[in-house]
TrEMBL record, chain A:
Segments passing through the bilayer: 156-175
Listed Low complexity bias regions: 134-144
Places the protein is found: Cell membrane; Membrane
Leader sequence residues: none
GO molecular function: sigma factor antagonist activity
Major localization class: membrane
Name of this protein: Regulator of SigK
Stretches the record annotates as Disordered: 117-148
Species this protein is from: Cellulomonas aerilata
From TrEMBL, chain B:
SUPFAM superfamilies reported in the protein's UniProt record: Sigma2 domain of RNA polymerase sigma factors (SSF88946), Sigma3 and sigma4 domains of RNA polymerase sigma factors (SSF88659)
InterPro entries: RNA_pol_sigma-70-like, RNA_pol_sigma-70_dom, RNA_pol_sigma70_r2, RNA_pol_sigma70_r4_t2, RNA_pol_sigma_r2, RNA_pol_sigma_r3/r4-like, WH-like_DNA-bd_sf
RNA polymerase sigma factor 70 region 4 type domain span: 161-214
Residues spanning the signal sequence: none
NCBIfam families xref list: PRK09646.1 (NF007228), sigma70-ECF (TIGR02937)
Gene Ontology terms describing biological process: DNA-templated transcription initiation
Keywords annotated in UniProt: Sigma factor, Transcription, Transcription regulation
PANTHER family according to UniProt: ECF RNA POLYMERASE SIGMA FACTOR SIGK, RNA POLYMERASE ECF-TYPE SIGMA FACTO
Pfam families recorded: Sigma70_r2 (PF04542), Sigma70_r4_2 (PF08281)
Protein name: RNA polymerase sigma factor SigK
Domain RNA polymerase sigma-70 region: 63-128
Species name: Cellulomonas aerilata
Length: 300, 223
């Protein structure tokens, strides 16, 4: 469409789109561009906050009482909808509930929410540990959320154990998929070495929110690749974790390029699982969101 | 596959109190400049939302009473259909309940959050259900009108309505047109540009400048 060409070609900056963004008058590509901008630029974030509050007043100005019966319907509905990140009954364990009655097609408003794994199906930070800092900050500042998000002690062992989507698949196909996902900079030799390892196992799994992950799990290293991924969100990247004895060991932060990521880790040992979460771009020492995929060895 | 476990019960008791205390502190911290003038009830809605985040259903009922008219009115303005607006209002209010735990009070008031969500969902709905042909026809139907006035006539009076009307009148005609078509019309700035036969960059600028002027007129305190 010619208008698209115009837009892409006019050199416009995401900053020029803040007003249109505040009115939801942008397309998805532009939306993400603005969200990236405000994640990195406190001044832009401040402007957006003000314009958003202004837009909300445009909404308040046309306030209209909803149908009376809606109230009972909503109050009834929420009793069946678990809250994102709600605390489990057992203290400080367990990932929180996935939304039950709300379709997963409803994304959060990113710049309002504490960053999350990018899919609605992925719960927000769950259990506030005793020393948890408040999940909020001064207005107009964009700070590294990883330092003040509730830390969870997710039961990673349980998650790894329930990685039912991961399945051994025929090697030829798996290798093909792995190679599709690998990047130019990845040393072909490393892949060859991995696959030459008699203990190597190739597993694949669907990624929560879209995409496919393929891993080659060998004796002392592992290859992780994924393609078809959603963008991780403003200021966020996919991070790899090695899951060992129920603990998540931080590994590479993987740059998302056109929906593909990859990493080779030497931190892997036979029997470990691999997991990926969405984290602040600087990476995290422990996961701050639920994994979007877990690849566990099937044979062991 | 799903990696998430079954739904645990909502937070109660000490966890709920802890969350409430934590969020309350944030909303009253020295840095916590409200984005909406105090004539509104930002403190009320914000405090209630903090309790909602802790699983308090009674607080949610009160929050519903504070926000539902604004949410429904926003949806109605964009969707022009009470049934659609009611459906989206329910979606939005349930999402407020579900994601209250993620709300970051440092980035805006609870009301702004809810109405932002409402507008986004209404726009998503209108863009999903209406074919381009229908929308073009609607654009034609509305040419020459000032949609805000049409919308406003359908609704009850409110303080916000008068303030917004006053401040909208303070915009240039082209700013007014662009802002109103985009917000109440649920159109992208590209569609606004097509309708007005104006260059894209011009429309982007009109929207932004118009909103900035509105912000100042309405006394919205920028962070």
């Amino acid at each position: 469409m010619s208008t698209d060409d115009l837009t892409r070609g006019d050199g416009s900056d995401a900053r020029d789109l803040i007003g249109a963004y505040a009115l939801d008058a942008v397309d998805d590509v532009e939306r993400r561009a603005v969200e990236r901008l405000v994640a990195d630029d406190p001044e832009a974030a401040g402007e957006l906050a003000g314009l958003r509050a202004t837009a909300a007043l445009l909404g308040s100005a046309v306030a209209t009482p909803p149908p009376l019966e809606l109230r009972a319907g909503v109050l009834d509905a929420i009793r069946r909808v678990p809250q994102a990140g709600a605390t489990g009954t057992t203290a400080r364990t367990g990932p929180a509930a996935a939304p039950a009655a709300v379709p997963a097609a409803v994304p959060p408003i990113p710049s309002f929410a504490v960053p999350d794994a990018g899919t609605t199906a992925t719960p927000a930070p769950a259990t506030p540990a005793p020393a948890t800092p408040a999940p909020a900050t001064a207005p107009g500042t964009v700070t590294d959320l990883s330092t003040r998000r509730p830390r969870r002690t997710t039961t990673w062992l349980a998650i790894a154990a329930t990685a039912v989507g991961a399945a051994a698949i025929p090697s030829a196909l798996a290798i093909q998929q792995a190679q599709e996902g690998r990047r130019a900079e990845l040393q072909a030799q490393a892949v060859a070495d991995l696959l030459a390892d008699p203990r190597a196992e190739v597993v694949r799994a669907d990624v929560e929110g879209g995409g496919t992950a393929v891993g080659v799990l060998a004796g002392d290293r592992a290859l992780f690749t994924a393609t078809g991924l959603d963008e991780p969100g403003a200021g966020q990247e996919y991070q790899l974790w090695v899951i060992r004895d129920g603990e998540a060991l931080p590994d590479a932060v993987m740059q998302d390029e056109a929906g593909a990521v990859q990493a080779v880790t030497d931190g892997y040992q036979a029997g470990d699982a691999l997991a990926v979460t969405v984290e602040p771009a600087s990476g995290s020492q422990s996961p701050t969101s639920e994994p979007v995929v877990v690849l566990a060895p099937v044979a062991s | 596959m799903s990696l998430t476990c079954a739904a645990p019960a909502p937070a109660r008791g000490t966890a709920a109190r802890a969350a409430y205390g934590r969020l309350s502190r944030v909303t009253t911290s020295p840095g916590g400049v409200p984005l909406v003038p105090e004539a509104e009830e930002p403190v009320g809605a914000d405090a209630l939302l903090a309790r909602v985040a802790a699983g308090d259903e009674d607080a949610f009922a009160r929050l519903y009473d504070l926000l539902a008219s604004g949410v429904f009115g926003t949806c109605l303005a964009v969707l022009r259909d009470r049934d659609h607006a009611a459906e989206v209002t329910q979606e939005v209010m349930v999402e407020v309940w579900r994601t209250a735990t993620r709300f970051d009070a440092g980035r805006g008031s609870a009301r702004t959050w809810a109405l932002t969500l409402a507008h986004r969902r209404a726009v998503d709905r209108v863009r999903a259900v209406q074919s381009q042909r229908t929308r073009d026809q609607r654009v034609l139907d509305e040419q020459g009108e000032r949609p805000f006035d049409v919308v406003a006539e359908e609704v009850e009076d409110s303080m916000d309505r008068e303030r917004v009307r006053h401040c909208l009148e303070g915009l240039t005609p082209t700013q007014h047109e662009a802002v109103v078509l985009a917000y109440y019309g649920g159109r992208t700035y590209r569609e606004v540009a097509e309708q007005l036969a104006a260059p894209l960059t011009t429309v982007k600028t009109r929207i932004r400048d118009g909103l900035l002027r509105l912000r100042d007129c309405l006394g919205v305190v920028a962070a």
